[in-house]
Amino acid sequence: MMASWQERLRRIISDPSHLALALLIGALVGSTIVAFLAFTDWMHALLFSKAMPVWIRPLTPAVAALIAGYLLLRVFPDARGSGIPQTKAALIAGGGFISLKTVIGKFFCCSLSLGGGIALGREGPSVQIGAGIASFLARRARLETREVQALVPIGAAAALAAAFNTPMAAVLFTLEELLGDLNARLLGSVVIGAATSWMVLHLFLGDAPLFRVPPYSLAHPSEFLFYAMLGIAGGCVSALFSASLLWLRLWYRRLPKWTLAFQPATGGLAAGLLALYSADVLGAGYAAVELALHGQLSGSAMFILLILKLAATVACYSSGNAGGIFGPSLFLGAMLGGSFGSLLHGWLPATTGPAGAYALVGMGTTFAGVIRSPITSVVMIFELTRDYNIIVPLMISNLVAYVVARAIVHTPIYEALAIQDGVHLPQAKGQRAEPELLVGDAMRSPAVLLSPATSIAVARQLAPEGDCLIGENGTLLGIVLGSDLDEALSKGSGGVAVASVVRRELLDRLPHLHPDQPADIVLHRLGQFNLGVLPVVDRRDIHRVLGEITLEDLLEAHRNAST
User: Fold this and answer.
1) Across the strands, what pairs with 544?
2) First CA to last CA across the chain, in angstroms?
3) Are the folds of 2-205 and 223-431 the same?
4) 171, containing H or E segment
């Protein structure tokens, strides 16, 4: 029975579209995330009952974090943290392996700690839960490592779509952050998984956006400048948040090992004490975000909440609690944008929109600065609010915040967290510090072209080693192998024209490169055609030679780039 089930699953996954399996994972993950959200809300209602004395409430996050921290230390050690760095590490470096034990631990430990009020979000843990379900399903069917890795992103996207009610942003985040490739071959199956999970969410919880926002309109074209200024502020706050979290987390990691069981409780206690000023510090704080979007909080109140939430989230995450930073980054942005917009509107009421509009843009601004996924942040805010009018200001502010945050803190936060854990993940191309080396940077120009009428003996004198290009007046006609020249000379054919020894396959399928291609392709092409030299040609006419490149040229370019 089991063997036949495994065989059927193998046949399903052998389909390049992964259609049936993506549907299955989407439905299963969507149902699990709905249960996770409902259980977390139930825990919160249980732990923060109205009958509870006021003086006990600040201690609730500490007690919940203490219990969850003990479970994380003794039973579920791989369920700590956000879940996104761990998922990325499992996908890239771990063959897609996420144990069912980790999924269970993430579900219950996060429900307990988040329900208890620690200042973290539920979206990051949801990603690890969804990815873990997909990983377990694939391994249960005894699929190959490559096939397991193909399913993990489907589960991750499905989980985020259900947790945030944002299927398009879930797909983009999976491709942009987890896979680092917006053109990944898994696009179709990831879309299907996210859409299926989103439909399951709507089946249980209805069709309502996470935040309801009033209609937005641009008051004056000068507001674009103000949104750019908000982007600068958002980039600075994002960098402060990331740097503070990484510094405090490293400090916690240097404490004696016997303190590990108590460290999460210190973060919960810090959040509880900060909540003495405002209970909105606890949890994701989406109720306060809703008020900020409707302009129902004063500028000073939002600025104070920004400071308190930043400190609480940094303390809760750095101390080892299980929870994410998606939700808190949106909270920080809403409070930053709201306080900034309130100040502007009070100063220039005729040319600026209400504070709520700036709070809305601010949400995406800090998300782009902290998470470093600018495309995802624009789509996510649109899906969360369903307000298209905010797109242009959002793109401006997000881009500025992304550039500023990246200039201050070079390493993205998820990558930096993985490095602290001893895992070195590959950077996406757009995040690499070093510029990409192109063929044009390494090629030698002009190319040495031998006339087709040149004798083989003269050709060997002009090109004493290796292969050579033949052509006339800058027009490439073919490539002749050095081994063919040597063979012709050994047969006494030195007076014959060099064109006679050009191989037909090198004429019919002329190997070539273009200046704008990545230099990494040079090694591949040299090996593919077993050549020592390659022509670099114009894209509009592959017979128009711009230069040539050899292995030595490539090595020299890399040496020059590193100095």
Assistant:
1) 475
2) 62
3) yes
4) helix 167-173
Cα separation, 563 vs 560, in Å, equals 5
CATH number for the domain whose boundaries are 439-562: 3.10.580.10
Alpha-carbon dihedral 400, 404, 409, 412, rounded to 10 degrees: 10
- Short-list 525, 519, 544, CA closest to 436: 519
Where are the domains positioned within the chain? 2-205, 223-431, 439-562
CA nearest to 82, candidates 242, 266, 272: 242
Bigger pLDDT: 6 vs 487? 487
What CATH class is the domain 2-205? mainly alpha
**Third-level CATH fold of 223-431:** Clc chloride channel (1.10.3080)
Average pLDDT of the residues in 527-544 = 85
Q: How far is CA 385 from the centre of its chain?
A: 22
Cβ atoms of residues 356 and 151 within 8 Å:
no
Count Cβ atoms below 10 Å from residue 41 Cβ, excluding itself.
Answer: 14
Contact assessment for residue 409 and residue 243, using Cβ atoms and an 8 Å cutoff? yes
Give me the pLDDT at residue 133, please. 94
Alpha carbon distance 15, 8 (integer Å): 12
Q: Per DSSP, what are the bridge partners of residue 479?
A: 469
- Condensed to tens digits (0 to 9), the pLDDT of residues 509-521 reads 778 899 989 888 8
